[in-house]
Design goal:
By secondary structure, this protein is of the alpha+beta class. The protein has five helices and eight strands. The chain has an eight-stranded antiparallel sheet with strand order 4-3-2-1-5-6-7-8. Strand 6 and strand 7 form a beta hairpin. The chain is globular and about 35 Å long.
Length: 243
């Protein structure tokens, strides 16, 4: 049974209809930082072509990313370093490119809708802090501890951190060593009590999504999914009428 506390939630960027395994996507978007463990040589399984399905959710994600990515000047790893530096003794467990809405403690605040990196970092005892980083200027917009963690949540987070020998930077390097794309999300999750780094990528040339899961104990690629939204829209006639 998976251990999935609220702070280690699985936020799959690809919907269930995109259950495909194909050659990974990627680019070089990250640095080599991180010395907790060394990632093993990646392994891959069989491959298949992405299949069309209900693309309404993907189309919305695509439209959002088309607006956010060109405006984002700060890469995921720079933002992650800023977030970790904001909380002493912490490690990254999640970072996601999203739109700024509110909650800035600095002035002037970014314009609503501008890109920000929403990060979660955790200390060794499992206490999680949420840190928002402006994806244009690199400023910390807000930093505060999670208020809804209970003792079990903290123990689950601490256990995942203790088991993870591969850092986020190493996991991204493995993923981006296989395919073209820009990192938009990195998070640590639990799969049958095994810590797994999930990396989301977007190829801005083809506007396809990729999600790569990497075992955080040995650096091996566990799964890779690719979904080409615009191609699927063409094949399905660009709509998802039901009935």
């Amino acid at each position: 049974m998976n251990v999935t506390p609220s702070t280690l939630r699985l936020r799959a960027a690809l919907p269930a209809c995109a259950l495909v395994c194909t050659a990974l996507l990627v680019t070089a978007c990250s640095g080599d930082e991180g010395t907790k463990g060394s990632a093993a040589a990646p392994t891959t399984g069989g491959s298949s072509s992405p299949s069309p399905g209900d693309t309404s959710e993907d189309s919305g994600d695509l439209a959002e990313l088309k607006a956010l990515l060109p405006a984002a000047k700060i890469t995921w790893d720079k933002a992650a370093g800023t977030a970790v530096g904001e909380v002493s003794g912490s490690e990254l467990i999640e970072i996601d490119l999203t739109r700024f809405q509110r909650g800035s403690t600095v002035s002037p605040a970014p314009s609503p809708g501008s890109p920000e990196w929403a990060a979660e970092v955790a200390t060794k005892d499992g206490t999680v802090h949420r840190v928002l980083v402006d994806a244009v200027s690199g400023r910390v917009l807000q930093s505060e501890p999670e208020t809804d963690q209970d003792a079990d949540d903290k123990r689950a987070v601490a256990a995942m951190l203790a088991k993870a020998e591969v850092t986020a930077e190493q996991a991204v390097k493995t993923a981006t060593g296989k395919q073209q794309g820009t990192v938009t999300d990195v998070h640590l999750d639990s799969d049958d009590n095994t810590p797994v780094w999930s990396v989301d990528l977007v190829d801005q040339n083809t506007w396809s999504f990729a999600n790569v899961d990497i075992d955080a104990t040995n650096g091996e690629v566990r799964r890779a999914q690719v979904h080409q939204v615009e191609k699927d829209n063409e094949e399905t006639g660009g709509n998802d009428d039901q009935g």
